[in-house]
Write a structure and sequence with these properties.
Blueprint: E1 3-7, H1 11-23, E2 27-31, H2 34-43, E3 48-52, E4 54-55, E5 58-59, H3 60-67, E6 75-79, H4 84-93, E7 97-100, H5 105-120, E8 124-127, E9 130-133, E10 138-141, E11 144-146, H6 150-161, E12 166-168, H7 169-180, H8 186-200, E13 210-213, E14 217-220
Parallel strand pairs: 1-2, 1-3, 3-6, 6-7
Antiparallel strand pairs: 4-5, 8-9, 9-10, 10-11, 12-14, 13-14
Helix pairs in contact: 2-3, 6-7, 6-8, 7-8
Organism: Clostridium oryzae
GO molecular function: phosphorelay response regulator activity; transcription cis-regulatory region binding
InterPro entries: CheY-like_superfamily, OmpR/PhoB-type_DNA-bd, Sig_transdc_resp-reg_receiver, WalR-like, WH-like_DNA-bd_sf
Length: 225
């Protein structure tokens, strides 16, 4: 059973969230101050924190900074101050998600599920001597670190998570769009595949890992041991 800690000084909201999440099968604890929240996180291992931005003895920003000194537990921050700078500040401090009050309980539940699912993803992906360590965003080939751009890194993860499956250029394009949030075209996909091959293939001119499927796209072929 996943365990959630709510750090919120509004008792009505605190009790409402606690009841709703418990009805969904979560084990929920609550704290109303920065001090209580910090003590709870130090004493127990939670799967996710729901943290209010404004607390009677401090702020969610301060508490997040303290928690990030010893824990990488996912944090969703709630705030009544809907400003861009507050959101930027929260994300820079290590908050995983950010919601402005009033918010939809249904949307909060979806975001909780997404963060919990992300925690269950494997931290390392390996195939054909290539290893991706998601915890530190590093790529290794036979133990040696490769210098990959952010786009190459994300493309490589996409290939390895869908190994032995043909991926169309449109699928790869959509994936890049989702991650980068900017316009790209099919030629960008081809260019970045070529660049990635120069870093991971033993012979980029005759690729063994990322193979072209003519007229469709590419496939990551995993070698059979």
């Amino acid at each position: 059973m996943e365990e959630i800690l709510i750090i919120e000084d509004d008792l009505d909201l605190q009790e409402g969230l606690k009841y709703t999440l418990e009805m969904d099968g979560y084990k929920v604890e609550a704290a109303g101050t920065e001090k209580e929240g910090l003590e709870a996180v130090k004493m127990h291992s939670f799967d996710i924190l729901i943290l209010d931005c404004n607390l009677p003895d401090g702020s969610g920003f301060e508490l997040c900074t303290l928690i990030r000194q010893f824990s990488d537990v996912p944090i969703i921050m709630l705030t009544a101050r809907d400003t861009e700078m507050d959101e930027v500040n929260a994300l820079q401090l290590g908050v995983d998600d950010y919601m402005s009050k009033p918010f939809s309980i249904a949307v909060l539940k979806v975001r909780i599920k997404k963060l919990l699912a992300r925690q269950k993803e494997p931290e390392r992906i390996e195939s054909n001597g290539i290893c991706i360590d998601k915890r530190i965003c590093k790529v290794y080939k036979k133990g040696e670190e490769l210098d990959c751009t952010k786009l190459e890194y994300r493309m490589l993860i996409y290939f390895l998570e869908n190994k032995n499956q043909v991926l169309s250029k449109e699928q790869i394009l959509d994936h890049i769009w989702d991650q980068e949030g900017k316009y790209v075209d099919e030629n960008t996909v081809s260019v970045n595949v070529r660049r990635l091959r120069t870093k991971i293939e033993d012979d980029p001119a005759v690729p063994a890992f990322i193979k072209t499927v003519h007229g469709i796209g590419y496939i990551w072929k995993e070698k059979m041991l």
